[in-house]
Design goal:
This protein is an all-alpha fold. It has a domain of about 130 residues. About 60% of the residues lie in helices and about 0% in strands. It is built from five helices and no strands. α1 runs parallel beside α3 and α1 runs antiparallel to α4. The radius of gyration is 39 Å and the shape is elongated. The mean pLDDT is about 80. It comes from Sitta europaea. InterPro entries: RD3. This is RD3 protein.
Amino acid sequence: MSLASWFRWSEPPSRLSQRNPTEMVVETLMLELGWQLKQAEKQQRERENEFRRIRTGVDYGWLVSAPRHSYDISAGERLQLEDMCAKIHPSYCGPVILRFRQVVAEYEPEAQEVSRLFRSVLQEAAEKIKEEEEAKKLARQWNTKNRTSLSLTTFKSRSRISPFISDIKTISEDVERGTQPNRRVWSMPEFRNTK
């Protein structure tokens, strides 16, 4: 028996598990939130160190190691954010991340404020998705109404009746032809039938 069979080195790499796209969106967005939280903590520490250096006039940063603050969102808030992330369509995942990064860069929030900004970006994206779905629904309804109305108008246009052009002989027409038309008053134009 060879030693290679005991280890997984000789096995071909297994295929990645087929995951639900919603799960991937939730995981991606939550990873982005975690990364932005760490960046906000880092910037907050840098601001505190700079303030301390300005206040004391001396830099003892090399001597004192500041305790690592590790802000973490509560489990309830994390579940709410994951639920909101699950409502985001996979095609909107990238734009949501870009918008979140833009908002974080614009406001430079404290670590505690990052989750609130993330929530607002998710709400904004959910509203936009909802509006686009309603617009598509209205467009579909409009297209189906137009198809039926166009078919009716083409049917109506084929069977158009003009009251002034008629090949049907009537009694009143024969009577009118036998008599001379009366002369009209000069203020009114004269209409004559030219057949």
